[in-house]
Specification:
The chain is α/β, with parallel strands linked by helices. It has 14 helices and 15 strands. It is 33% helix and 21% strand. A 10-stranded mixed β-sheet has the order 5-4-6-8-1-9-15-14-10-11, sandwiched between helices. A 3-stranded mixed β-sheet has the order 2-3-7. A two-stranded antiparallel ribbon has the order 12-13. The longest helix is centred in the first third of the chain and has 17 residues.
Length: 409
């Protein structure tokens, strides 16, 4: 593997509060939240992050009937990223385009729907959809993107729980450096709100957020936090080698200079601060940076009691002496978008390279003493001048940890 530099040149996204990169940043700087009550099968109305992008912008009604929600999110984000990057597929070798999509889970939604529908017909399997198998295979979201856009390079999903958005980006960087592809579509997507099993599972764990005001249920680091707000969404980047991007005169959002992934191997759900700190140090070492060289840290914190506190322990362990590193959290705005979380949270912070602001963490009324972090930005966006480095943290169940560092060029 060579050490050729790899950069982000395009961003396509849909989030509960925005359907494009510019609006997303505006919402984060101006505290615009659109979490709402969502009808969940068997469970009633629950707080959730629901996207309102127009799938018919890039798909026909027939395609929507046959494809998955995850696939539609992926196609929308890919088209938007290519448009943002100024890349026309007719002008490139599509056999050299790789699609690397991070997911937390896939297939739940389609299977739950089919089982529910089957019950309406006395369990007669002749009413089972012939589209079920291609809809539920693990590579479906990436495959639907490749099928719709006519991309002939490698496509696959990266199942890395809630670290998957970062994992997709990391995979892209590695494959570009290996010379396997010339352009990567990478990031993460989630259709999790369409599965009642996701909500039921978090509730049974005591980790599903609840409250009277849906906008305020996602409250990382707050003493009164009580669990996760499940969200859907997606964010995919166009990722290229720097030399290729410069050759075509592309705008460059930032360079992927460091990353790390490791595993706690201690518990299926409870995180491990020592291993999280190790993952952060791994990324710093790969980027040849010190903790004090990082300007912004976007935290993973999901609003669970133990998860937030343990992550803060890991961050203090690595960054305790850094006076210039500012910290924020994006889930306080959009809830937890699962496989899309890491990619969306990176996208939300990338504009800081140009505007010099750290978007705030919101919904903190009383900071949990276990979650005290130096330079945690609370309530209002903070101007800090020049921003050169962003460190993005995403952790997930079964102890998977991921960190990506992006640097301004």
């Amino acid at each position: 593997m060579n050490r050729e530099r790899v950069v982000i040149t395009g961003v396509g996204l849909t989030a509960p509060n925005a359907n494009n990169f510019v609006d997303f940043r505006h919402c984060l700087l101006h505290k615009i939240v659109r979490i709402r009550e969502f009808e969940v099968r068997h469970m009633g109305k629950l707080p959730a992050g629901v996207c309102d992008f127009d799938p018919l912008k890039y798909q026909t009604k027939k395609e929507l009937r046959n494809c998955t929600r995850a696939g539609s999110i992926g196609i929308f984000c890919t088209r938007e990223a290519l448009l943002d990057a100024g890349i026309q597929l007719v002008a490139i070798d599509t056999a050299r385009v790789g699609v690397y999509v991070g997911i937390t889970e896939h297939g739940n939604v389609e299977t739950e729907n089919e089982v529910f529908n089957l019950a309406q017909f006395d369990d007669d399997v002749k009413f089972w959809s012939p589209h079920h198998n291609p809809r539920t295979i693990a590579n479906n979201p990436a495959g639907e993107i490749s099928l719709k856009l006519g991309l002939h390079g490698p496509h696959y999903t990266i199942g890395a729980a809630c670290a998957a958005g970062n994992a997709g980006i990391i995979q892209a960087a590695q494959m570009l450096r290996l010379g396997e592809v010339d352009l990567a579509i990478a990031g993460g997507i989630s259709e999790s709100i369409r599965s009642f099993g996701i909500f039921a599972g978090f509730r049974s764990q005591g980790a599903l957020g609840h409250g009277d005001d849906p906008h305020r249920v996602s409250r990382p680091f707050d003493r009164a936090r009580n669990g996760i707000v499940v969200s859907e969404g997606g964010c995919l980047f166009t990722v290229e080698r720097l030399s290729d991007a410069q050759k075509r005169g592309a705008k460059i959002y930032g360079e992927i200079v460091g990353y790390g992934m490791n595993t706690d191997a201690t518990d299926a759900v409870l995180p491990n601060a020592e291993r999280q700190a190790q993952c952060i140090r791994m990324a710093l070492q790969r980027a040849n940076l010190r903790p004090e060289d990082i300007d912004i840290i976007n935290t993973h914190a999901t609003s669970t009691l133990m998860g937030d506190a343990i992550e803060c322990e890991a961050i203090r362990e690595v960054f305790g002496s850094s006076e210039k590193t500012y910290i924020n959290n994006t889930k306080s705005f959009i809830g937890h978008a699962m496989g899309a979380a890491g990619a969306l949270e990176l996208a939300g912070n990338l504009p800081a390279f140009d505007d010099g602001y750290v978007h705030p963490t919101i919904n903190i009324d009383e900071l949990d003493p276990r979650c005290v972090l130096k330079n945690l930005v609370i309530g209002e966006a903070k101007p800090i001048g020049t921003v050169k480095t962003i460190l993005n943290i995403s952790f997930g169940m079964l102890g998977t940890n991921s960190v990506v560092i992006v640097k301004k060029i």
